[in-house]
Amino acid sequence: MKSVRFWSALLSLLLLLLPLVSCRGGEEPIGEPEPLAPLEKPRAIPAIEEVTGYGNSPAWTDATASDLTYTAVEGGVSITGYVGEAGALRIPDALDGQRVLAIADGAFAETELTALSLPDSLLHIGEGILSGASALTYLHTPFLGKTPDAEQFAGYLFGALRYTDNSLKVPTTLKTLSLGGVLTALPAYTLFDCNDLEAILLPQTITSVGNFAFYSCKRLRYIPLDGLQEIGEYAFHSCSALTVLTLGEELNSIGIGAFEGCNAIRRMTLPFIGGGSEENAYLGYIFGAAVPEFSRGYYPEELSEIILSDACSAIGTDAFYECLSLAAVRLSANTERIGPRAFYGCINLRAIDLPGALTEIGDNAFLYCYYLESVTFDERMASLTIGINAFAFCRSLTELALPTALAAIPDSCFASCDALVRIDLGGVGSVGKNAFRGCAALRSASAREGIALADGNQRLAESLSQ
User: Fold this and answer.
1) I need a surface site. Which of 96, 182, 249, 441 has the fewest CB within 10 A?
2) CATH code linked to domain 44-178
3) Bigger pLDDT: 465 vs 19
4) Residue 168, exposed/middle/buried by CB under 10 A (0-12, 13-18, 19+)?
């Protein structure tokens, strides 16, 4: 019975992959898939100020020696309790000229504090310092464990013994968590299941976040990530309120599924596509897809805009494979290569500007981009090659001006671009077989003298002769 199930599963997988394998090359585009209607216009992406209105300091009261109880420890003092009446309390680095080095067990437990800022001078934090502090909305702390080197998890400050109790112990009122400049890495599971936090402020000292670090922070709307170098596997899994994501140019690694379940993301700024600039270089990887062909089921449904920073020099094979919601991509000025099937099936992509550094567009790169209306080639291109089927079935293209850097159009390159009316062939000297097959609307074409046309380009030949 197990053998039957195995072969049945294998057959199903082969049937699923068969049409994908067939589009890996060949002179003509594969049979057109079932037509898809354009997606509805995506909801407006919120202005950045709408998602950064966190972390503004409350009306702080700076604690004095009379507001606190404390004991002497080697090199400074340890705070043991709070006897003041302020709602938003900021603990200074020193009391009576002595550094604040520690917070004792339960020091602020059961208080009515709405905001608390702990000093970055701390070397030790006791257990449950905020147990029962059920009114707290804002917290600044230099670390989330007993010491910076100890296990880090948010619930520790509220009496939890393990990270799995974060959701039970961290108060539902806590909306903003600000971390100080002590930690260099946020370990795995640190904020696991802190599902009421809306904003997390990281210091520039943190360069990596571990696996599952922010898992299921379901209300998280704002977190600056521009200084990170590494993001672990499933780090932001199910952070389903994130809408805008900006990853900085120092980033070099993203684990699989790092943003799986982040279904509200609408705009992303990236230094590369996928898990790294060379390995797993397809967008679906960071959303949980084990192979590019499975990406379609993992992308956020409203992901409509991708911005690639100057660190991105290549768009890899299958980079945005079947990202149906993608409407706009801004390529880096340094982009030199667009790999095979990079935008395959991106049916809602409306326009693409190709930079002057570009030298190669791979096979099937924009195949089935049905609603692609505009392709702009930078005339500063020094040389350019385009692969077979590269723009086949781009059924909304009406005009096209090819650059002088392009010497040849390969087989089936613009086949079934059936709305194409005008084309300037630029520096093209030869046109491959069926390159403009099915371009029935073509009426106007211009080309260099002596251009060679292979079979299957009758409509183009007629347009050139008019």
Assistant:
1) 96
2) 3.80.10
3) 465
4) exposed
